Amino acid sequence: MDGDVQQQAPTGEPQPTVAADTVGAADQPLSPASAPTRQRPPWLLPAAISAVALLVGLGAGVGVGFAASDPTTSDEYHDVAAQLSAAQDANRVAVGRATTAEAAAASAAQAAASQKAELNQREAAVAARESAVSAVEQQVAARSVGEGIWTVGVDIEPGTYRTSEPVGSDCYWSITRSGTNGDDIIQNDIPGGGIPTVTLKEGQDFTNRRCGTFVKQ
């Protein structure tokens, strides 16, 4: 070609030869008719449709199975839940009643303890009064002379005595010397009434007949 510089291969080396038809074929694109075609297997489309249908059915079955296995949606679950709620309500009522009963029992026990303490106080007061009365009675008894024969300084104390009440007409008293068996009379009287008075000393015996009680003054 004009104007082009052609390089010559070095002398003695063989030149590569390219077939003209090969070069031209490489430079031209393949026509649709001449390009190779990839055909689908005849079973591919039905298999794909079946797989999709299987996946859809499996998903629906899982959903239905989950809904069917949920225990909270069954009538039995609601019945059990209602029974449990009723039992809990009954338990709360029972606990409330037990608490009320315990409070009442505690109040009753406290009231009983208070009553017992008050009763103990009353009993202690009665015992104190009885003790005081007993002491007074003992003192009165020690200072009193009933019917009988008494030795002054041994059975009764010396001193002045008088009857606690007016005497009757059959009253008789006497003072005798001790050890004489009533033969040595120091003083005696049949007052016939009134409130007689006697003075007693040690070494004397005092005889009281139907005159009641002489009390030391």
General description of the model:
It is a single chain. By secondary structure, the protein is of the alpha+beta class. Among the domains are: 69-144; 146-216, no CATH class. It has 3 helices and 8 strands, in the order αααββββββββ. The strands form 2 sheets. A 4-stranded antiparallel beta sheet has the order 1-8-3-6. Strand 4 and strand 5 form a beta hairpin. Mean pLDDT is 81; it is low at 1-11 and 17-26.
List the SSEs and their pairings:
Layout: H1 20-27, H2 44-69, H3 75-143, E1 144-145, E2 148-151, E3 159-163, E4 172-177, E5 185-189, E6 197-200, E7 204-209, E8 214-216
Antiparallel strand pairs: 1-8, 2-7, 3-6, 3-8, 4-5, 4-7
Summarize the structure.
Keywords: Membrane, Transmembrane, Transmembrane helix. The protein has 217 residues and is of the alpha+beta class.
